Hints:
The structure holds 2 protein chains of 2 kinds. Chain A has helices spanning 2-6, 19-22, 42-48, 52-64, 69-81, 89-110, 129-140; strands at residues 66-68, 113-116, 121-124. Chain A is mostly helical. Chain A has a single domain, classed as Arc Repressor Mutant, subunit A, CATH 1.10.10. Chain A has a 3-stranded antiparallel sheet with strand order 1-3-2. In chain A, helix 3 runs antiparallel to helix 6. Chain A is globular. In chain B, the strands form 2 sheets. Chain B has a 7-stranded mixed sheet, sandwiched between helices. A 4-stranded mixed sheet of chain B has the order 2-1-3-4. The longest helix of chain B has 18 residues, at 107-124. Classes of the chains: A mainly alpha, B alpha/beta. The interface between A and B is medium-sized, with 32 and 34 residues.
Amino acid sequence: MLCGTLSRNLGVTEMPDETELTEGDAGEPRWDEGALDAVSSPDALFRALANRTRRRVLGYLLEREDATFEELIDILTGWVASEGVVVGPDERRQLEIRLYHHHLPLLADSGLVAYDREEMEIRLETVPDAVADLIRFSTRIEQPPESE
Amino acid sequence: MSLESILENAERHQKSVVYYRREPDDFGSQFATRNVDITYRDLPPAGPDPFVVVRDGERFRGAVSADTLREFLRPPIRQPDDLGELSPAYRAVFELLDTTVFASLHRRQLLATSRELEDRAWRVGRGTFHVGFQSVAAFDAQRSLYRQLAEVTDIDIHIHVIPEADTESLRGLPLTVHVEADADTGRYWFLVFDGDGDDRQKCALVAEQRGPDEFYGTWTYDPSLVDSAFEAVS
Lengths: 148, 234
């Protein structure tokens, strides 16, 4: 029933993103020479994939190759809406801030994504098939939240 | 000002809707083309389920999944009977779609919207509330609810009915019955609440019957639209 599906929480929740809090570059493992040129390191790759929002962005870019910032925000908003809530202007603003100031810089650092700050266009770098498979896998295993 | 002109005014409040979809369907036919500008975008397989983004001009108003919207526009038969039962989230869909003119609103949806407006009036407990019943049956179904509203609250209730309605049972209640023979009362489903002068509480529903179970109409929380609807019915 509608009231039931809508009465779930209204907030935009996200798992705490602890992966980038403590690590430095110093001891990070590197790829074997030439193995995965686009990606800066295994840690950077898995750091990029360690967050649901970034997996959604990567999954979308993998199929579209590029997207505008507005388009990505719409898609992220749609993911939240798919949980049965109405996403209002405040929640959307939060998503914008997180994407712009946090997720996109981190994705750019990983080497998976390039973006033009002026034009606000976001592009997936050429990624090896193995990485594309990994992105697909990471979006596929994500199940929609269970009904309460 | 007539009820028809309220709908014309609402049509001038331009909305833009982006429908992110998997495959073409009849989504667009629900809206009045003059009021709602619909853009269609195709979702990739790895994207979220189909959803809808609503904007007033450039301003983002909200996003809702296509499933939630569909269920909202075609609600289950059973409606909450008691006032005060609507969840805030359910109300959010009303606010998201306010002043959107729908080409084909279902009777059950109008019942749900009416309940939302009655619930608002109930919570304010004062002010002036006009409600029109198109048929004897429609009036009979809501009679006890309006008796309760009249008995418990200080709302100045005005009930507009067609001459055939039996208003005997309302005799002695603190509400005003307007028996109207003019065609508007039979044609329009309407509720208008002045929010007791508080702009944030004003609301109105105006829907013209176009088929046995189909209405062309809108609900609105826009104070100026509600004010003009108020003029039209008082």
